[in-house]
Amino acid sequence: MAKYYENTTTFNYSWEQVTQCFWNRYPNPFSLHVLSEDTVCREIKNGKLHSKRLLTKTNRVPKWGERFFKAKSVNILEESVVDPKERVLVTYTRNIGFNKIMVSVLHQVKRMG
Prior knowledge:
mainly beta, five-stranded antiparallel beta sheet
């Protein structure tokens, strides 16, 4: 049986502040759980910025998963699309390691009017 969790957060900040914070997340000295961040590709298509980044993180495995593997880190693929005209930032993040045991997917949409 799969577990699914969804969360929505409203940021009371400007479009510029939210998108700038997104791009400045990694690397930064306060994110010690992020071991590396590499941009795989970045291009503009139809006025939208499409990016793919490969992250290596040391996030803890859920308690139930600890008996299946003792991984110290996991590779994560983050894909994003920024539409400055519509002021929409969409991110799709998923693990690309250990996905036969557990898949973690995070999909976020940040829209400002």
